[in-house]
Amino acid sequence: MRIFSGIQPTGQKHLGNLIGAIDQYVAGQDRGEGLYCIVDLHATTVAYDPTELRARTYDTAAILLAAGLDPDRCVFFRQGDVMEHTELCWLLCSVTSWGDLNRMHQFKEKAGNERELVSAGLFFYPVLQAADVLAYRANEVPVGDDQRQHIELMRDIAERFNSRFGDTLVVPEHRIPEVGARIMDLQNPTMKMSTSSEGEQGRIHVLDDPAVILKKFRSAVTDSGSEVRRGEGKEGIANLIDILAAVKGTTPDAIEAEFADSRYGDFKTAVAEAVIDRLAPLQARYTELRADEDALEAAFKKGAEKAQVIASATLADVREAMGVGPRS
Ligand code: AMP
Ligand code: TRP
Fold first, then answer.
1. Can you tell me which residues the record assigns to a coiled coil (predicted)?
2. Which of 38, 96, 140, 262 has the most CB atoms at less than 10 Å from its CB?
């Protein structure tokens, strides 16, 4: 079982990223061969500052390692270090239709009314994402719910490649967590918690101070009822139930039973405390890891060497199948 996922180096990672994705990466190390990549090339598809990009890449690396990724038990690397991703992206363009790319929700959202002005990179973003996974012939891709369409597209691309050029690529499966695939904004519980949403009040960053976390949970938007249970019009409470279930490794039903007699205020405090306890060791490790950029670079280098062995073998097969370059 080979598992692959990528994560953007932009912005601060939030609780949705941790529960929806990072926790699954960590668990994947025990289930199979995990490959985890910080996608710096994807980050160049929107306006960005080069110096910032490197700094945010280190931040993200330190968060992932602090959360439990172990470079000895997985292949942990930076996308830009392995050239095969960009080459495969181009080669896969031949079996990707313009129409499919033009229908991608994330492209439509990010491009907004500026479709003609955004970078072509933003348009090709999903092809590079497909290349990330297909280069390793990964079987499974752990991501949050928002990546569904991108995974469907990469499956289509792999199938189209195989039927056009012969069986070469593995068609990967989507793996989304049972609880927490879609953590919602605390201030606006009908919207997902997102790096790009305005205002930070509804978003818990994994590096937030305990006092800030408590304040954000205490002011989370709920409803006019009083029962701690899921239901129509209770998106805010349902979200807090999901968060607590994910953080404690239990089910939403169990949380509802445990808090059947609690008031909203006490429940919010309990969620905040559980999140603070969960994040404390991660934050402590983060500070240590982030301070040593040379060590982070060394980890990237080691990971890229391992990744490249796998990716270059796939690329040789892809080139051969497509008739590109000399006969092998
Ligand atoms: P990004 O930071 O956009 O690269 O996202 C990293 C991972 O976090 C992806 O697998 C997303 O699907 C996942 N993710 C992002 N937002 C949420 C959310 N609100 N709930 C659950 N998972 C999320
Ligand atoms: N697009 C993904 C996101 O925004 C990040 C990503 C890039 C990715 N390449 C990937 C996820 C490959 C899974 C597999 O979260």
1. none
2. 38
Please name the fold of domain 200-287. Tyrosyl-Transfer RNA Synthetase (1.10.240)
User: 117 exposed, middle or buried (CB, 10 Å; 0-12, 13-18, 19+)?
Assistant: exposed
The pLDDT tens digits of the residues spanning 191-245 come to 999 988 888 999 999 999 999 999 999 999 999 999 999 999 999 999 999 999 9
24 in contact with ligand 2, CB cutoff 6 A: no
Nearest C-alpha to atom 10 of ligand 1 is from which residue? 143
State the Cα–Cα distance between residues 43 and 87, nearest whole angstrom: 17
* Beta strand 2-7 pairing with 33-38: parallel
* 5: phi then psi, degrees, rounded to nearest 5: -150, 160
Task: Answer yes or no: is pLDDT of 278 > 90.
Answer: yes
| DSSP letter for each residue of 262-319 | --HHHHHHHHHHHHHHHHHHHHHHHHHHHT-HHHHHHHHHHHHHHHHHHHHHHHHHHH
Residue 35, classed as helix, strand or coil, is strand
φ, ψ of residue 174 to 5 degrees: the values are: -80, 135
Burial-class residue 256 by CB neighbours within 10 Å (0-12, 13-18, 19+). Answer: middle
The matching CATH number, chosen from 3.40.50.620, 3.40.640.10, 1.10.730.10, 3.50.30.60, for 2-176+293-322 is 3.40.50.620
pLDDT digits (tens, 9 = 90+) for 154-198: 999 999 999 999 999 999 999 988 888 999 999 999 999 998 888
> Domain boundaries in the chain?
2-176+293-322, 200-287
Structure confidence at residue 117 (pLDDT)? 84
Ligand 2: distance of its center to the CA of 8 in Å? 7
CB-CB contact of 136 with 314 (8 Å):
yes
Q: How far is the CA of 167 from the centre of ligand 2 (A)?
A: 24
